[in-house]
Structure formats: C-alpha cells, structure tokens
Design brief:
With 460 residues, this protein is α/β, with parallel strands linked by helices. It is 44% helix and 13% strand. The protein is built from 16 helices and 13 strands. 47% of the residues are buried. The structure holds uridine-5'-diphosphate-xylopyranose (UDX).
C-alpha cells in the first residue's frame, strides 16, 4: 500500500528520492533504507544512481545519472587509492547530469508526489542541486555515530595544530585525544594516500551536507552509541534519526554488486557451533601478495575451521590471487574460500564463532547484530574508529596490529575462538545482539525513530 497524505484533503501518493554513493558499503544501507521506508511506511522510492557500479534495480524505480560521463580513473582501487579525492571529483562530475535528471523526474511528478531527497552524506553536490530545485533533503550517514563525532571534531583538531600530525613519531601518533576517547591521534589519519587538504575539504562538504539537511539518518542504535548520538544532536542542530540496524528491517540483498556464493551455507551447516572463523575485508580493502601468503598460513596453522572471502581484486596488482602450494591439502575439509559471500547469512549462522574483519561499518554492525566477536584489521577511513570502539568501548574484539605474520595470525585466531577471553567477548557481543533485536520492537528506540522519520517525510 502506498503512503498518502492524511490531512483530510485529497489523498496523494508520496515518493522518496534517493541518491546513494556508488560503492558497496554505501549502496547496501541506502537500499536497505529504501526497503525499510517501503515496508514500514508504504512509500514509493526512486533511486538515482551513477552510471557505474549500478546495482540490480529490483523493486524500486532507478534513474541512471551521468551516462557518458567519463568515469575512467575516477573509481578508487588498490593500496594507493585516494578515496577522498575521488569523492570530490564524483561530486563535480555528477552535479550537472543530476540536475537534468532531477528536473525531469520533478516535471513528470504528478501532484508533487516527491517528498524529499535522501542523499548520502558524501554527496553534498547532489544536495546543492536539490536545494536549487526546491527539494528538501535528508542525509544518510552510512557510518557509525562515533565516526561522525570524530569528523565533527576534525576542524578543531586542525586549529589546535594536531592535524595533520606534526610528525610520524609513533609515540605522538599514539597520543590519546582527550576530547574523543577512546581515539588516538593516529585514528584520525584517515588515509596515507590522501592529502590533508583533500581530507579537510571532503569532511567540510560532509558536515555541510548534515547541517544543511532537514535531518540526519544514522545506521546505528541507541544502545550502542547513545552518548555519541547525543553529541551529534547537540552539535548539528538538525533532527537525528538512529534507525539501525537497517539490514534487520530490509536485507537489500539486491544491492550486492558481486554474485554471492551460497554454497558456503551448506558447508557451514556441517560445522560445529561457534567453531568457524569468517574472514572478509569488505569491498575495497586490499592486501599485497606477502600478506595473502601470511594470512593463508596463519589460518592453516591455527587448525580452526575458516570461511575466507578472497574478492577478485583483494590482492593488489593481481587479478587472480594464488594461494600457496600445500595450502589446500593442509586445510582440506576445514577451510573454504569463496569470492563473495552472503555475509549477513554467514554471520547469522550458528557455526560462525568469530569474524576477522577490516571494520567497515556495515561489517562491524552486521557482526554485532549476530553476536559475533571480531579480530580487527582496519585499513582506512572510518575503520580505525570502528576498531577502537570494538576493542575499547564494547570489548567485543581486538586489533591485529603491525605487519601481518602467520604466527601472529594463528595466535589471534586461537585467542578469539579457543580462549576464555574470546568466549567473554562472544558473550558481550550476544548481549548486543539482543539489544539490536529489541530496539526494533514496538516502543524500541530504532522503531520509534523510524516512525518519527516517516512523519517527517510525510510533512514535506
Ligand atoms: C566502505 C568503507 O570501506 C567502510 O569503511 C565504510 O564504513 C563503508 O564503505 P566496505 O569496505 O565495503 O565499505 O565495508 P563494509 O562497510 O563492511 O561493507 C561491506 C558490505 O558488503 C557489507 O554489507 C557486507 O555484508 C557485504 N559483503 C561483504 C558481502 O555481501 N559479501 C562479502 O563477501 C563481503
């Protein structure tokens, strides 16, 4: 059933327009939100999408933007990728084409059905277009609340002379940031391949997008990040809607850009409860060949069952990762390698007892929601911040630091899967899982926030 205005005048269908950032970790929550708004509020959704990395349009109306825009060299990949720079260029190149597409959709709009545009917080350029054309905007933050708090503090840390770090001295980089516990200075260096000026510009756009919106939607839950959410509400001066975990309202599985290999589910069925380590580093993180080798032998030597995702472009400068000789024999019957997994189902399987992750926010939240503790190996952007919260605040995992080396990996796997400390982390993670279920019940914090969000949308 489509949602309608209920003010007593003529009833009219409402439609929400969306513009996700075209990367897996951003597409998933936006399309989950689309599913949630449709499921909980009966709203129709139109998704504007860059003409690259476009997902399967299943279920929603899709409007490609920027056909013919030269995206070559724009998509970040590999260890030296400058993600922040790519975001700025993407905003520039998509802005004009989006203006044309949005105008066209608004022209076709019967009776002003389009209520608002929900835009990824990294797409300030698209928000400016919506402003120009008189369309109200809501911003979706696909990262954690803690990450947004850190981004909000970035300008003040620059003013204090702490950022960019004055030196690469390790003691200085380890300096705790009193205003942002449990973060250290090093956790605010989002990437070694992006210049400070580019990063600062990117965060300025991101914060502007939040402040200029009619509200910020965050994929998190009160029980996990209540004080961070309060800081955001105080600091931004716009309504905040903490409606996560979004994947629990709507799986948005159609948003997967890669084909999921579901044979691993049958394999998991044959494994003992809490025995398997799931290893995956999301859609963008990468490793070199030596790290692949050490990871392979670390997993093999741990003697524990594992399910490992080796994405086609996981290994830098190699299209096809090759596992070392002898690895298959050493792990036969105990290990499985796939190129892309149905991650939410994997983490929800009773056999999975631990997750070795890069701590992208989706992976972190999906793990928490299934009560799975983590080995953390963050690489860039928000991943270090997420890792610090997993380790220091929620105490449901620990960092695997420094150079990847097989002995260290073996030790970490055993610590998580075989030792008392790991069991305690699993228990705490399971407590969070229960909270993530309860927040979606009637009267729960996320359910209440979704109702408020729907009201807001219907008020435009
Ligand atoms: C990126 C950034 O790297 C991350 O730091 C930021 O928080 C979001 O954008 P990504 O690296 O892809 O995301 O990681 P993550 O946020 O964890 O998202 C990956 C998504 O892909 C998850 O929803 C996960 O379920 C899905 N996935 C991953 C699969 O479906 N199958 C897999 O095999 C691996």
């Amino acid at each position: 059933m489509a949602a309608t205005a209920s003010s007593g005048e003529s009833q009219r269908r409402r439609r929400v327009l969306m513009f996700p950032l075209p990367f897996q970790g951003h597409l998933n929550p936006m399309l989950q939100l689309a599913g949630a708004l449709h499921a909980c509020g009966g709203l129709d959704v139109t998704v504007f999408h860059a003409a690259f990395n476009a997902p399967d349009p299943a279920g929603h109306r899709f409007v490609p933007v920027g056909d013919g825009v030269p995206f070559g060299g724009l998509l970040p990949s590999g260890s030296d990728a400058d993600f922040a720079g790519a975001l700025l260029r993407m905003n520039e190149r998509l802005r004009g084409p989006f203006r044309d597409s949005l105008r066209q959709v608004l022209d076709e709009d019967e009776g002003g059905a389009s209520a608002c545009l929900v835009v990824d917080s990294n797409l300030r350029g698209m928000q400016l277009v919506a402003e120009e054309l008189g369309v109200p905007t809501l911003v979706l933050r696909t990262g954690s609340a803690a990450c947004l708090v850190a981004y909000m503090a970035f300008p003040a840390l620059c003013d204090k002379g702490l950022l960019p770090p004055p030196s690469q001295d390790q003691i200085q980089l380890d300096m705790p940031l009193n205003e942002l516990p449990p973060l250290r200075l090093r956790d605010m260096v989002f990437s070694t391949t992006t210049t400070h000026a580019t990063m600062a510009r990117c965060l300025e756009c991101l914060l502007e997008s939040a402040r200029c919106s009619s509200g910020v939607i965050i994929n998190t839950l009160q029980d996990l990040e209540s004080s961070e959410l309060q800081k955001i509400a105080n600091g931004l001066g716009v309504p905040i809607y903490a409606i996560g975990p979004l994947h629990k309202i709507s799986s948005g599985t159609e948003s997967s850009l890669l084909a999921q290999d579901r044979t691993c589910m049958e394999w998991l069925d044959k494994q003992e409860t809490d025995s398997v380590l799931y290893v995956s580093f999301g859609s963008l993180a990468s490793m070199d060949e030596k790290e692949l080798l050490e990871t392979a032998w670390g997993l093999a030597n741990s003697q524990r069952p594992f399910l490992w995702v080796i994405r086609h472009n996981l290994v830098q400068s190699s299209e096809q990762a090759s596992l070392p000789d002898g690895f298959e024999e050493a792990t036969r019957g105990r290990g499985m390698v796939v190129s892309w997994a149905p991650q939410q189902d994997v983490l929800g399987h009773r056999a999975v007892g631990g997750f070795w992750t890069h701590n992208g926010w989706n992976s972190t939240l999906e793990s928490i929601c299934e009560g799975v503790p983590m080995i953390c190996r963050p690489q860039f952007a928000d991943q270090m911040i997420n890792m610090r919260y997993v380790q220091e605040v929620w105490k449901i995992g620990f960092e695997l630091e420094g150079e990847l080396e097989r002995g260290k990996i073996e030790g970490a796997v055993r610590r998580l899967l075989c030792e008392e400390e790991g069991r305690e982390m699993r228990q705490r993670a399971k407590d969070f899982r229960n909270k993530a279920v309860n927040c979606m019940d009637e009267g729960g914090s996320s359910k209440t926030a979704i109702d408020l969000l729907l009201k807001r949308i219907m008020s435009f």
